[in-house]
Batch of 2 targets.
Target 1
Amino acid sequence: MILGIETSCDETSVALLERDGSVRVNLIASQIARHQPFGGVVPEIASREHLQHLFPLVERALGEANVPWSDVDSIAVTSGPGLIGALLVGVAGAQGLAYGLGVPIVPVNHLEGHIYSPYLQREGAAMRLPERFLSLVISGGHSAIYDVRGSDIQQLNRTRDDAIGETFDKVAKFIGLPYPGGPEVEKHGREGKADRKRFPFPVPQFSKEDSLDFSYSGVKAGAIRLAREHKVSVEGDPQVLADFCATFQEALAAQLFDRLDSVWTRLEGTKPAEVALAGGVAANGLIRERMQTWGEARGVLVRLPEKRYCTDNAAMIAFAGLQKGNASDPRRVIARSRV
Ligand code: KG4
Ligand code: ZN
């Protein structure tokens, strides 16, 4: 059994997976309520919360899965990227456990956790990873496309400025919606009608420079300007709020699929047969639906992660640990905020 630990941001999470990727338990202690009064994650609070919750959560996980300590033969822990104080709690905790149990540690890059997460199942063994797949990671901290062949991961593009989740969160905060903004925008957007004429969000085009990168700062600035002009706010007209959210979400999705298309068109040689979506924003209903349509139109198999494996969780970290397999000496594991 592999024990997974994730503490890179604002969720303390612990999971136990079998070698075939079956998730025996995946517990998440969310700190959202502690950060909500500040409208975003406060790093100092995050570290303290992890410190308080990590070990009780480890014990609960073993108890719930009915797994004795002696069955844990390795520990996968997120070593970066993320908030350094938060990462240190997970890494130091994993080091202590590894020493105590005499088992190795597998340091895992948080993004690799997201990349393989669409292959985890709700029940039973994980799906077999294809030889190659295209991964689209869309989260609060990252928006990037990768060409994945086993443990060889090539980054094909990135965001030049804000990540898509960050854009959801910042604009949501501006109009008075609670943190995290993504699910809130989705919820309000469901009651509204997207209207790009009424809310003309800019769609960034880099045709001149021929770049494949994402860029969300233009949509963010445009959203804030439009929200001001139309007096969009939680305290204002609920229909205006709903229509704004629906259109804003459309604009973010449009940028996402425009870039995905460019990356796809420019891939040379044989194209991958699968595209896997991952990250917190992969929980978004509109984006999931569009992703399916995108794949069907191109004859590509689309893998959507279970919603429970979209936002940060330790099951995906343990699963990525299983893919890597190269365990380290616990003394040599270092937390890095940037990788
Ligand atoms: O992967 P994640 O938990 O953390 C990072 O590694 O960044 O992603 C969190 C992000 C937040 O920005 C949150 O607003 C967004 O995922 N998110 C959503 C939805 N659920 C979470 N965005 C849009 N629609 C959702 N349903
Ligand atoms: Zn994440």
Target 2
Amino acid sequence: MPNLLNDRPHHECGVFGIYGHPDAAALTALGLHALQHRGQEAAGIVTFDNKHFHAERRMGLVSDTFTKTSVLGRLKGQSAIGHVRYSTTGGTLLRNVQPLFADLALGGFAIAHNGNLTNALSVRLELVKEGAIFQSTSDTETILQLVAKSKKSFTIDRMIDALSQIEGAFALVALTNKELIGVRDPFGIRPLVLGELDGKYILCSETCALDIIGAKFLREIENGEIVVINESGIESIKPFQKINPRPCIFEYIYFSRPDSYLGGLSIYECRKAFGKQLAIESPTDADYVIPVPDSGVPSAIGYAEHAKIPFELGIIRNHYVGRTFIEPQQSIRALSVKLKHNVNRALIDGKKIILIDDSIVRGTTSTKIIEMLRDAGAKEVHMRITSPPIKFPDFYGIDTPIQEQLLSANNTPDEICDFLKADSISFLSINGLYKAMGHSQGRDSKNPLFTDHCFTGDYPTKLSDNESNEEFSQLSLLSNLE
Ligand code: AMP
């Protein structure tokens, strides 16, 4: 039986924060625009004008709302945080749209979160038993409630108090009437970087959000680090027990934008190197190397370069597919692949193709694209995937489905090849993945440098909600109001 808790709302997201800049709201809107790939369902900004907080949270793309002067004009103040959100299953509710805001004992408090907590429901259950009233179904509200409940005298101590009770992945930005706070969880699973513009500090999920506003990249927030930015400058606090970082390897494979840098590495160069490594591991003869755009493009360039086979755009992507078609339901997903991609017939007829994509999750994309290539007369289609088979679900904020729906969890590569109607299929090896990122020994299983749980099942944190026996009472906490 599927574990129902895996069907709770979880999300991929991007966060942005800026302190003390006269154009805080507009810069945040631009930053969120650069982070749009991390979430397309909703966006929000909260600002503080030294007296009041102002909030705008809307469904839709950043450009749907935050290009309007009427909206930006309402977001007064010199400090702001913002959020883009992609929720998967469960209701897409306006009350879940971040940043969340509450009036706490010490004043207003806004928070925006990228990542997923793995014990949010267990903690929520306890808080509700004690009388807490939750307004959203978002795991982020659990953090807010814990901060609200803490008896510590200063906001930062309340945050530390709250964060020490939660498990999972969290890259956070929070705004109070005194400071902008940034936090990265003890493993640094989701990214958070620090930048500077006109002498003012910025926190954001990816460096591409700094580029768009002409800000300078200063450094990454470290795993387990909290930074407090206020009138006196910036202070770094490391309240948690020091552990080795394990950022999520999937940021490199799919999630981050190729023009971003993470862990000192260019995402684009990493993806090219994955393609090259796959060409070394799984060579095959073909007329063209063709990417599934956009996600397969850098890797296909790397593969083609190494294999000395021409890189061609054999599949054209429609960039104007509406958000409706990014819906998480399987039926709509299947349709959306055809809306999104079309075959460049002139190129394909009678040709042997190496088709490159970064990952297979349910197999929807690959199935449809191979079918289209065959219809267009492809003689052979060799599928090459620049990551290992995804066998385990994610609990840290990436939209992967329950294990039952993961194609590679339940099928061997040969079975997948038959299912996709490909002529051959190869996945990048886990050691090859690490090698391509500069770790010549491959994956050190005693001390892995990344969290690669999707491929290995090696989860760095406890998965308390998933292991809990209180599934149904926990779920009922979320399901009463749609
Ligand atoms: P699927 O069609 O379910 O096999 O999903 C694989 C396709 O979705 C590939 O083209 C990936 O680039 C893309 N993809 C991989 N991971 C994700 C994710 N977490 N969210 C959305 N798309 C993804």
